[in-house]
Amino acid sequence: MIKIALAGNPNSGKTTIFNNLTGSSQYVGNWPGVTVEKKEGTYKKDITIVDLPGAYSLSPYTLEEVVARDYLINDPPGAIINIVDATNIERNLYLTTQLMEIGIPIIIALNMYDIVNKNGDKIDVKKLENSLGVKVFATSALKGQGLKEAVNKAVDVSKKPGAPIAKIFPEKINGAIKQISALIKGHVPNKLNYWYAVKFFERDQNALSTIKLPNNIIEEIEPIIQKIETEMDDTSESLITFERYEYIEGIVKQSVVKNNNSTTSEKIDLVLTNRFLALPIFALIMWFVYFISVSSIGAMATDWANEELFGNIIGGNISKFFISANVSPVLHSLVVDGLIGGVGSVLGFVPQIMILFFLLSILEDCGYMARVAFIMDRVFRKFGLSGKSFIPMLISSGCGVPGIMASRTIESEKDRRMTIILTTFIPCGAKLPIIALIASSMFRGSSLVAPSMYFLGIGAVVLSGLILKKTKAFQGNESPFVMELPQYHAPSIKNILNHTWERGKSFIIKAGTVIFIACGFIWFLSNFNFSLELVPPTESILSTIGTIIAPIFMPLGFGEWQPAVASLTGLLAKENVVSTLSIFYGLGESASADAGLIAAISSNFNIISAVSFMSFNLLCAPCVAAIAAVKREMGTWRWTFIAVGYQTLFAYCISFLINNLGGVIFLSAPITVMTYIALFMLGGIVWLTARKDSYLDKKYRYKYTM
Amino acid sequence: MPKTLKSVKVGETVLVKKLNGEGPLKRRIMDMGITKGVSLTIKKVAPLGDPIEVTVRGYELTIRRDDAELIEVE
User: Fold this and answer.
1) In the CATH hierarchy, which top-level class contains the domain A2-157?
2) Could you give the ipTM of this predicted complex?
3) Contact B31 A241 (CB under 8 A)
4) Domain segments of chain B: what residues?
5) What is the tens place of the pLDDT at every residue in A538-582?
6) Among A304, A330, A498, A512, which has the minimal tally of Cβ within 10 Å of its Cβ?
7) Residue ranges of chain A that CATH labels 1.10.287.1770
8) Using one digit for the tens of pLDDT, what is the confidence trace for B33-66?
9) What is the DSSP string of A14-64?
10) Bridge pairing between strands A2-8 and A79-85
11) Which residue in the set A57, A88, A273 is minimally distant from B44, CB to CB?
12) Domain A171-257 carries which CATH code?
């Protein structure tokens, strides 16, 4: 069995090559430790292809680069196919120079070679091959050219020793590396001796943290480095990077002829990132994405799935079958009301979410998303985030789970954590029914309610960003933002469908597992009492729990047990809020806002308590599936609790303010002690937002940790 | 005060003289190809005034003004 890893820069066409080679035989799994998706697939019997996350360098900066580096160092594949974007050869070869040092046989796939020719540039593959000392294949991932040959060669070289070490560094540095290499011999794996020697020379803490050298060796290494640094008047790290690029420049000069036509990409960017047009065009594109996926086509598909597919076709037919087969009413109720009703209401969102992901994948694949980060960065950094935070938040408007997962591309851990905490404030698709219910029962279906709730979500993001970035955990001002703007290219349908499916799948799996179990559990809690007797919901275990926790929500204006239980079941899936209310107001299962439920809401809430209830449920801890995603991305329970705790506390405060101040202002409720507490709380929030950032110190600006 | 990338106008091409700062940011800037002696062209400024887009080694890179301040140019 031979493992061949595809390694290369982001946007070099790795995934397209991977899909091309492995067809549909791929699967997505998780790396041990950190959880970034890895892809593995079979090319032929006994040949496994591993698609590594994109990396610019083996000195990792993003989470994805850490994964790629750790894989290559700790679990070396038989051979590497280094995918090099031929249209951007200089920077792409930078990774190549590093990959050639880790003792793994390597070949190069010079990808997008056809585009180079189209641009009127020329690359002499033979010359390139000779200078690098590594086999080079011209490939086109999109057209599938040259890939088979490359893999076959990779299989060949995997039986041979690792790549020859290129003569990159000048004699002085080389001498130092040789000295270090001799000193660390025996303390590092033999194959990686050269690589570690370079790393020690660079003082790359990240790579060296795993190697324990005796103190006397460390003391011998340092003067070797310092000597070179004094002689060459620069830090060792800068010298290494500089020499690598010098070496590459030399090779490129010999083998590449460029004509300096402006590329199509540049022409597109003249419009799309134009100083004046960029924002209006961006708004228009987002509106269009939203219009297609959420309000027009998506809404139609979701309505159909909810009412026809799960209501009539599946639920109705199983019902008929159960009745004809004389199945016990308890089982009937469990399957039809509990499981199909519950899971169906979640799966009903699949069409909307799939369309949203489909459109977002197009934007991502063609290169526009990077421009979004470029355009929006200025806005987001004001709240302690980066332009890249926009994408997770946008996806979260469909579903928080993939939204949270999309935070992976954010380099700085601080920004990533902050984005994860804030992203579920944006109302997701599952929260729409809550909004619809309150809008139709309290505001005569006003179309202003939904946008207001989006603004509430955005407001919560902004406010929380301002509050959190001044806390100790998020200290140290903005993180750097150094990002490539990749060339635009026509999106590949295969890639987009793959992407859409992978993301949609995680949502469907959530519905199939967590929510399936949760629905069965809720059904049980709401149909049995503590003596395990079948009872109406109003006498069930759940109603008892509701009565116990209801007082907590008293200050928020909905201290009755029905909304309390609804908020609780909302943790399993936000759609449950509406159906739970429906069940517990004694109206039976109803996933949407029917007349009876609307009447029940109108008589049990006033305008202010209804808004308070809605706001609490939109802002508080997300559903279990999203919490699970938070745990996966945060890595620790501590941060998961911080995230969920903060969200719930924030939601509680906002609802408290709405209920106690809103009541006095709009319903002329009497001023009570609660009003003063609310004013005090408001003052506290304003202070937290506006206070001076005591951790803002120029000195700490760049000392953030991975 | 030495001239940095931050103060370069759109459309100008400059040569990198020195990189200041330390740690992962400096490393990343270098990894992305901004090393001593390389030529940079300022392509444009984002609609809200920050970040900026530069052409380096034949591709487009975006970097914030504050980070561009670390790059001394001539």
Assistant:
1) alpha beta
2) 0.96
3) yes
4) 5-73
5) 788 988 998 999 999 999 999 998 899 899 888 877 877 887 888
6) A330
7) 171-257
8) 999 999 999 999 999 888 999 999 999 999 999 8
9) HHHHHHHHHTT--EEEE-SSS--EEEEEEEETTEEEEEPPP-S-SS--SHH
10) parallel
11) A273
12) 1.10.287.1770
